[in-house]
Amino acid sequence: MHRSGALKLLAAHRALALPSEEAVCVDKTIAFIKEHPDCLLRTCLPGHLTGSAWILSPDRRRTLLTHHGKLGKWLQLGGHADGDPDLLAVALREAREESGLSRFRVVDERLFDVDRHWIPARGAEPGHWHHDLRFMLEADPSEPLTLSHESRELAWVDVAAVPALNPEESMARMVRKTLGVPIPPRPWTGIPP
User: Which H or E run includes 114?
Assistant: First the structure.
């Protein structure tokens, strides 16, 4: 299983001036990947890698969130790697599957954020860690959304209003990063499906 791509992304991200909580998440995720050759699979019971998409409108004023069916909270779109070592491709796949959107622009192929969060036990599945590698994408808010079976609701939300919907620090951190990221001076083109 190819873990080198994830480790390379994480090492480059760790070299940045990160908030202390995020730096701890990166360090623990790197250690986890090194200790678990099967980290890209759900069958890795202590935890596994996930890829998420922080999807913004081109003006960076709104973000697309899902009200997650199982977790019951507003989150960015994303999901399990399921063996795919390309976590950006995972984030794009999950964004398409969970939103029905067909066009995205990858703002940066480098990581936007990294989080590590506990997923409680459910049925026969034990509690485990999600090591979440997050990428910033842009999409057109006028494109119709399609609700997936994983979501209760999808909504474009004002970025500054996200902490009122989900006060978790990792969400607030992505908001702070977004509000501090300059808007690129290029037209919307999107990426075809």
Answer: strand 113-119
Q: Is residue 136 part of a domain?
A: yes
pLDDT tens column, 51-85:
999 999 999 999 999 998 777 899 999 999 999 99
CA 179 to chain CA centroid, nearest Å: 17
SS3 103: coil
CA distance 48 to 19: 23
Task: State whether residue 189 is helix, strand or coil.
Answer: coil
- CA torsion sign for 158, 164, 166, 167 is positive
Q: Read off the pTM.
A: 0.91
Name the 3-class secondary structure at 69: coil
Domain with 90 in it: 4-180
What are the DSSP E strand ranges found in 26-86? 47-56, 62-68, 74-75, 77-80
Number of domains in the chain: 1
